[in-house]
Amino acid sequence: MTSMKTTLRGHVMGAGGAAVLLEVSLRKLCERYPESQRFAYADLEREVLPAVIAQFADHLTDEDKHLLKWAVRLRNKIVHGQFQSLSDILEREFGMAVFRPVQSMELPDDSQGVRDALTSLVAGEGQDVHDQHQKKEAGTYAWELEVILSGGLVKAMEVFGRGIDLMDRLVRIEQS
User: Which positions ≥6 away from 168 have C-beta within 8 Å?
Assistant: First the structure.
């Protein structure tokens, strides 16, 4: 049986890897053109993304631009561990329901203690933290758990995948 810690690591690493691949794809695309090369190593959201959008304006729909803008912001949320904000973006900008109330409680290191704590958590005996927007209030683990249980990191990977597919499409346009 896979532990929650292993699941968390896998989801964070998968989403983080997809976020990095999106960023590298944007930077590489920016680097291909003399007029945008100077932005290739600049701030991703403020300089790289606008340069790519300007370069391919004739080939990008409003939906494409929306996807890229919010995929970059999702990348920032994962990199900085701002999971509540990640969930908010997925819901608001992509219509992906990810919110699931989570309760927080200290989990012991031994496996029986963890099982007992999770049983208590399912029974609703923890502290309700779903409406708290700061890690300090809810505890980082509660936000990590929520984003895993809700599928938020997997959904973020889907958004990054769509962004990477879009970058591939732009490369093909550029090559034709």
Answer: 25
pLDDT in tens, the chain (176 residues): 677 677 777 888 899 999 999 999 999 998 988 888 898 899 999 999 999 999 999 999 999 999 999 999 999 988 887 877 888 898 899 998 775 555 555 555 666 666 665 666 555 555 555 455 444 555 666 666 677 777 888 899 999 999 999 999 998 887 77
Task: Name 104's bridge partners.
Answer: 127
Asked if 102 and 135 count as a contact pair (C-beta separation under 8 A), the reply is no
What are the b/e assignments for 123-144, b being 16+ CB within 10 Å?
eeebeebeebeebeebbebbbb
Per-residue tokens: 21: 């691949």
pTM over 0.90: no
Cα distances (angstroms) measured from residue 17 to each of 21, 118, 124, 125, 174: 6, 29, 34, 35, 25
Beta-ladder partners of 127: 104
